[in-house]
Fold:
Amino acid sequence: MSALPAEHNETRGFNQHQSQVDHPYLDKKRYEKALGEAGFRGPEAATGHEGRSMSKAYVHGYDYRENIRLQDQASTLVELLHSDTAYPAGCRVLEAGCGVGAQTITLGRNSPHARITSVDISASSVAEARKKIEGAGFTNVAFLQGDIFSLPFEPSSFDHIFVCFVLEHLARPVEALNCLKKILKVGGTITVIEGDHGSTYFYPDSETAHKAIQCQVELQKRAGGNANIGRELYPLLTAAGFTSIHVSPRMVYVDSSKPQLVEGFTKNTFTAMIEGVRQSSIQAGLIDEKTFDDGINALYRTAETDGVFCYTFFKAIAAKA
Amino acid sequence: MSALPAEHNETRGFNQHQSQVDHPYLDKKRYEKALGEAGFRGPEAATGHEGRSMSKAYVHGYDYRENIRLQDQASTLVELLHSDTAYPAGCRVLEAGCGVGAQTITLGRNSPHARITSVDISASSVAEARKKIEGAGFTNVAFLQGDIFSLPFEPSSFDHIFVCFVLEHLARPVEALNCLKKILKVGGTITVIEGDHGSTYFYPDSETAHKAIQCQVELQKRAGGNANIGRELYPLLTAAGFTSIHVSPRMVYVDSSKPQLVEGFTKNTFTAMIEGVRQSSIQAGLIDEKTFDDGINALYRTAETDGVFCYTFFKAIAAKA
Structure:
């Protein structure tokens, strides 16, 4: 799509692929870059804590009605989104749409004795993810290039499936969930995590900031995706026939008492992501330069001492009956 | 203000009061009515649980950095907003702006041995609150009619102050907080709870629904208030010179797996509240009848089987240094 940033030619390549999957690489790359720049406690920093976090995560991971961590207590995005996902020893887990491995490394760390298979439609992303995981010393993750709509697995191959920041890029998310359900065992679970740009609000409020954000939403829509998909996890999983669906919103609330999140989330993750679609938004005629730049400045303004920024991710867990 | 619904003439009366306080009665009345209609587990239903919840609440109530309950676990709005507020025996607590006592009864129940003083600018509201509390058999709450900007208390009279759904109605919230700070002891805490209509989003999304909600926001603004004040608690408390400010968002996430919240919150609290400003919105020229009604229908649509509704309250606790 010409609406996509020029530097992401790779994404266009995937659109030319026979698959109707829009590749999750674009946003994953941004998220990871931002998380890295942000000084969030990355996977590396957590090395040595596997024992402690594992036992805790294990207990939580299988009582998902009770397991959701209090978002106030989460000091990092990784903790907020992933700390309650862990899989038992020996079970087979599919990570569908692993991108370059941002979540894979957390999965591998939290479920050291599970047998994880991470797939992505992009061979280069898979290669990068593999390098990252092997570099971290994990041996419990296998990698495979493959299309989520036609994965080469027998029915009921997996005990659990994990899907993070993937559905937002798909034109047919229910069909994707149906494909995944076929290769999930009866009694197995699917975990889905998505953001929702429409959940964004802040102080001081700014109309231009909302217009700049809307550019990202519109570009993603034109690329066949849905940047506001987080709120839809319940109906999507219902439509795909999953049961025992439990959706847990994970709100990132940032004020200046949380300087790590001010830098790491408000500025270097969210605002940087919106800033990244400047050229494509203007080229697509969605907005003029001044309005966009004013909007970005207004987003940075929310990172000042008296500013507040709110964004919500949604995490769903559901079962195959 | 002519922008206010005709049935709330009382509110105009309070506007004619010498005080510049806009009376919180309007929304409090709606909230209470809605909560009652909704079948939320009200204060009465919790009778008999004081012992258990008290000991738990007490521990939580004074370690507020660790005390926030997981919103996923809260099955009622009362639990979501109030379960972690309890005050120790013997301490003096001011509830500023008690309205007709919706929160007073929860305060009285959760802090049975605290000495609570509940004030409101409306004598009739105070009378109604007193009746409610006495009817419930509580003897730990005293009532007083008074203006939040000129309360008849000596400096440092209170150990703790509680303010819920009040600042949203005030044109000068920081000044109100300053007035309250004077009568708070050094080392005491203030707890503030406010909603934020700008935190509302839902599935299916609807532009007309947002327009209808915006009518309520605009009417409240014209009346001198701020329906989007929840996100501002941190800067407001900072501006008033409070310290150790901790803001905890309390998101109400509703899908059809939570039928009690579908009825009690989406339909009978939020949508009913917006529906209540129909006439005044149209009279004020903010919207036409068809758009408003379409918006209301779209809000009810989010309460259907595949619908989702999200709203966030903000709860802040801060100290006087």
Remarks:
- Chain A has twelve helices and eight strands.
